[in-house]
Fold:
Amino acid sequence: MYNRVLLKISGEALSGNNKILDNAMLDVLGEHIQRVYDKGVEIAIVVGAGNIIRGKFAEELGMERVQVDNMGMLGTTINALALQGQLEKRGIPTRVQTAIKMEEVAEPFIVRRAIRHLEKKRVVIFAAGTGQPFFSTDTAAALRAAEVKAEVILMAKNGVDGVYSDDPKKNPEATKFDHLSYMDVITKGLKVMDQTAITICMENNIDLVVFNMNDVSNIVKVVDQAPIGTVISKEG
Structure:
């Protein structure tokens, strides 16, 4: 079983029933994070903001990339606070740390403080991405995982149970990979994370497990290292 994990959750995983934030989805997600927490696993989380703002929507409004990314960073903070509320309702001590200053709302990101929270068995939710435009929350997840020395990034995907040779929704002949190396991901051009994030994981020897978030019980199974999803590592 892993001891310290970083869970990457898309913003869409918090939405449902045409709601930006769906309480039922938050409740189920909170339940399974609690099951992992009760195992004694140290948990860090990076959450996206796709339920609030997406690049395509912003393009339709004719907005510049920097503006869109700034809105996205604020969106991740809204999601982080919602998730914090759900976890604390369950009695799980949780801290939100943001990469841009908003000290009335959450702590600023300080790596030593984040590690100390994890050691004290507090869940730490990292918001506002890297604090800079042009970097995805995938890159933020890889960066924070390296900084807090997480053993693995658990990448929860919507409706996709791993990494495939092609888009399985468009190509029924696409094959699923059980194991890959980071070099395989780069050379095959597989769309798992952006290349910056992949490089950070590879250089810091952080494993990545891609699994289906639609069954949130998979979080517990992945932590127990059950053979689900796709495992990506330095050696493959």
